[in-house]
Amino acid sequence: MRICDKCNKETEIIIQEEAIARDERGETEGKKKIKEKKEYLKEYERVVRQMERSELKIKEMRLGRMIPAIVNDGMPHASSNNDLSGYAALLEQEEKRYMRCRYQRIKICREITDRIEELSDEDEKDVLMYRYIKLMKWVDIADKMELSYKGVHKIHGRALDHFTIKKKT
To answer: So what's the pLDDT on residue 28?
Structure first.
């Protein structure tokens, strides 16, 4: 009788450990999916920031060309710096990069907004749009929606659960 009791207890422990491992794997997979969705949604912000950096670089290049550095060391310097080909090539390269970023931003924005619009709940759509397209802070979203900070996060969590990423073909 004792051997059977011992076997049953060992079997119960093994079954419980397997169930816990399954639950942990499921939770981990769920967290991975949520993280994947957030990364997908944050892609728009990354492209916007890249575009802004490129735009800033173009402005700096143009400003630097319009207002050359003045050296007041009392020594004579050549003032005929008329060759603009290097400057023009660099400027053109940066402008092309900016245009690629701009195109990418529009493409990603359209893709993400189409995915967001597939959600059925309007509050979930609003939270995702405010956070990932309009790049608003959580506090500002809560104020705009007239909800608590915690309430916005609950809606955000539900929205991520319902949000689907476009499968790449």
So the answer is: 75
Sequence-ordered alpha helix ranges (H) in 67-164: 85-117, 122-128, 138-145, 149-162
Measured distance CA(137)–CA(139) in Å, rounded: 6
CB atoms closer than 10 angstroms to residue 6? 10
Would you mind telling me the total number of residues written for the chain in this entry? 169
**Predicted local confidence at residue 2, as pLDDT:** 46
Q: Is 79 exposed, middle or buried, given 0-12, 13-18 or 19+ CB atoms closer than 10 A? A: exposed
- Cα of first residue to Cα of last residue in the chain, in angstroms, is 60
pLDDT grade, residue 151 (50/70/90)?
very high
CA pseudo-torsion sign 93, 95, 101, 104: negative
Residue 94 one-letter amino acid: E
